[in-house]
Design a protein that fits this description.
Helices cover about 0% and strands about 65% of the residues. By secondary structure, the chain is mainly β. The chain has one domain: ATP Synthase, domain 1, CATH 2.60.15.10. A hairpin with a 2-residue loop joins β7 and β8.
Length: about 90
């Protein structure tokens, strides 16, 4: 049995949370986030990681395509194939 919060599938579990609501909570193959010093790509098996978010577009790639979000400020954390994005502003883009 996996530890609570770990992804057992073939990808990542991604949580995108703003102060108002959970914007995204689902599986993904990869994610690219705008860290304060440049973009960071995250795949399954990524080492534990934490960074300060900058402003820009975050891309979550799934088998059905790519979802895009506008994020501004906050943090990103990667632990055991779970990516948590806590952002001051997070909204889905069309």
């Amino acid at each position: 049995m996996a530890a609570a919060g770990t992804s057992q599938g073939g990808g990542l579990h991604v949580l995108v949370i703003s102060p108002e609501k959970t914007v995204y909570d689902d599986e993904a193959q990869s994610i690219v986030v705008p860290a304060w010093d440049g973009e960071v790509g995250i795949l399954r098996g990524h080492a534990p990681y934490m960074a300060v978010l900058g402003s820009g577009e975050m891309r979550v790639t799934r088998s059905g395509g790519t979802k895009r979000f506008r994020v501004e400020g906050g943090f990103v954390q990667v632990v055991d194939n779970v990516v948590t994005v806590l952002s001051e502003t997070a909204e889905a883009l069309a």
